[in-house]
Design goal:
The structure holds 2 protein chains of 2 kinds. By secondary structure, chain A is mostly helical. Helices cover 74% and strands 5% of the residues of chain A. By secondary structure, chain B is of the alpha/beta class. In chain B, α4 crosses α5, α5 runs parallel beside α6 and α8 crosses α9. About 6% of the residues of chain B have low confidence. The chains are: A mainly alpha, B alpha/beta.
Chain lengths: 341, 267
């Protein structure tokens, strides 16, 4: 300790790479400085790596502020396209007539031509959902009943449960892609995808409902000397008939939303119309499609909820308000398309 | 006309013996099964109906050995075991299930005679007017009467009832028992009914079989049911409801028996 420590030495002490320290406390201090230095080095390395990745990503997506600034006018034009301005009684408002004329012109809903009804895109979407639901219903019923421990003894019922779990693990959207080789990029394939989805999902709901039934009526029917399929249908299914109808309404509602989503990737109907208009940069027409989609998804949900609450006399069904239904429509369309539990 | 024969019937649930070597023969009678809870009354009835498989022994109806549930044996349950959500008529009609195919029964294409029989059975239990009503909207006594109607639609030769009035008030219980006895007489069937209420049993039964700890304690005709037997069956029980027994024109000797029992209970 005769000469004062050099600059280099004090720096080494600061970063904790110096090997001094007589007492245990001083040694610990040195040790902690070393740890701090290590942390700082990791931090610097992390920052550099993040910066490099960010820079590379910007290069890859060709990010350019100049581009945005140069396109602001076009974006404004597009906004005017999405929401064409007009005035009603002198009050500026969105030109609803522009949407309507497109909807009529493109026959998105339906027209009557020479005494014959020409079904529009909206009905194609609904047809995909309805056909898919009805096709999937017997399968859902079969798997739902077979998964019940009362019908097929454990562990054999788990074969049916596992099949339904597997189906549910794959979203409807992916089922559509998988089934394209069967029937092409068509509404038909869309209905098939919904059929598969319904088997897995509605079947599961049926199984859950069957868990809740009472043993008494089953025993009552058995005591009459009925055969086993009669025991299932009269002792079990008759107990949950109304609940099943309510679940079917719920599933149909979900399937309409899924059909919209599947349309965007090619299954026809309103989704496809939206996709086509986006590709051709027709902003007013795009918005018209979106509005129609929200209206369809929202109304189907409203009707389905009312039907279900009428069917389930005692159980309370959540009754969404009209605004809530339309506000939630986009989120629900997405979740219906990309899968549920 | 039918004869139910039970021979050396035993039933064990694991280590527990529910029934031990019970034998008896009933022919066109209204027989009441008495005994404490757990004495084996339900097990006996479930074995006869085929809902439970006996460990040993045999059951035969008119000399033919029977096993499994069948149309010839109708069953009425304490909790009626009807399907709540559908009408009394459709519940009664399920009694005819074993006579139709799956498809026909699903489409309700039963023979007209079965449909008429369902309504006639409901008429027997005094519910013809209410037959379109949902079971869930009916009172407990009415529901039990629908249960009786369902059993009658089976056109059984033997009618079983497992504590049919245990969850009913005294007045409904009497109504249900009256209809049950009427149904058994009209359809000329052998009836085996388990009951908890000694008063009710003494009022309606032709013959009494007492079970204790899975064994047959007594098997007596009306008039032979003495207070001592009841005492033996239940031990010393001090509280039993004392219903005033009105003498029925059908059978005057009942009062005497019931009176005896009540005396014992009061003593």
């Amino acid at each position: 300790m005769s000469a004062p420590p050099s600059k280099l030495e004090s720096l080494a002490t600061y970063f904790g790479v110096d090997a001094i320290g007589d007492s245990p406390a001083e040694q610990k201090l040195q040790d902690m400085k070393r740890r701090k230095t290590k942390r700082r080095l990791w931090m610097v390395g992390g920052l550099i790596a993040t910066y490099l990745l960010f820079y590379a990503s910007l290069r890859l997506i060709e990010f350019s502020l100049a581009e945005i600034v140069g396109q602001v006018d076009q974006f404004y034009e597009a906004l005017l396209g999405y929401f064409p301005p007009t005035t009603y009684f002198g009050i500026p408002f969105v030109d609803l007539g522009a949407y309507l004329s497109f909807i009529v012109e493109e026959n998105l809903i339906l027209t009557v031509e020479g005494g014959e009804i020409v079904w529009g895109a909206m009905f194609v979407t609904m047809a995909v959902a309805f056909a898919g639901t009805v096709l999937g219903l017997p399968l859902a019923l079969f798997f739902g009943v077979m998964s019940s421990e009362r019908v097929i003894p454990y562990p054999f019922n788990f074969g049916f449960r596992a099949t339904m779990s597997l189906i549910r693990a794959i979203p409807g959207l992916v089922w559509f892609l998988i089934l394209i080789p069967l029937a092409g990029v068509t509404p038909f394939t869309g209905a098939l995808a919904i059929m598969v989805d319904t088997t897995g999902y509605l079947g599961r709901l049926f199984t859950d409902e069957l868990e809740e039934i009472e043993d008494g009526p089953i025993e009552g029917i058995r005591s009459t000397g009925a055969n086993s399929s009669q025991i299932v249908s009269f002792g079990m299914l008759s107990q949950v008939f109304r609940q099943f109808i309510a679940w079917i309404a719920f599933d149909l509602e979900h399937n309409v939303r899924a059909a919209i989503g599947l349309g965007i990737i090619g299954a026809g109907g309103l989704g496809l119309e939206l996709y086509v208009q986006r590709q051709t940069f027709n902003y007013t027409e795009m918005m018209a499609c979106i509005i129609l989609i929200f209206l369809l998804a929202g109304s189907v949900e409203l009707i389905s909820q009312r039907v279900r609450s009428a069917l389930r006399e005692d159980d309370d069904i959540e009754q969404s308000g009209i605004i809530e239904v339309f506000v939630n429509a986009p989120r629900k369309i997405l979740s219906s398309t990309v899968g549920r539990r | 006309m039918s004869k139910l024969t039970v021979e050396n019937l035993s039933k064990q649930y694991g280590e527990v013996t529910a029934l031990e070597e019970v034998s008896f023969e009933i022919e066109d009678e209204f027989v009441v099964l008495l005994g404490e809870s757990g004495a084996g009354k339900s097990t006996l009835l479930r074995c006869v109906n085929g809902l439970t498989e006996p460990t040993e022994g045999s059951i035969s109806l008119d000399g033919e050995e029977i096993s499994g549930s069948q149309t010839a044996v109708g069953m009425i349950f304490q909790q009626h075991n009807l399907v709540d959500g559908v009408s009394a008529y459709l519940n009664a009609l399920t009694g005819s299930l074993s006579r139709v195919s799956m498809l026909r029964s699903m489409l309700q294409w039963q023979a007209t005679e079965d449909k008429v029989r369902a309504l006639e059975s409901l008429e027997t239990v005094g519910l013809l007017e209410e037959s379109h009503q949902k079971v869930s909207q009916m009172s407990g006594g009415q529901q039990q009467r629908v249960g009786i109607a369902r059993a009658l639609v089976q056109d059984p030769r033997c009618l079983l009832a497992d504590e049919p009035v245990a969850s009913l008030d005294p007045s409904s219980a009497e109504t249900v028992m009256t209809y049950l006895r009427k149904a058994a007489k009209e359809h000329d069937v052998t009836a085996l009914v388990s009951l908890h209420q000694v008063n009710v049993a003494a009022h309606f039964g032709d013959r009494f079989i007492g079970l204790r700890d899975g064994q047959k304690l007594f098997d007596v005709e009306r008039g032979e049911l003495t207070p001592e037997l009841i005492d033996d069956l239940y031990g010393s029980v001090e509280t039993v409801s004392l219903a005033e027994q009105a003498s029925t024109p059908e059978n005057g000797s009942r009062e005497e028996v019931v009176g005896d029992i009540e005396q014992v209970i009061e003593a």
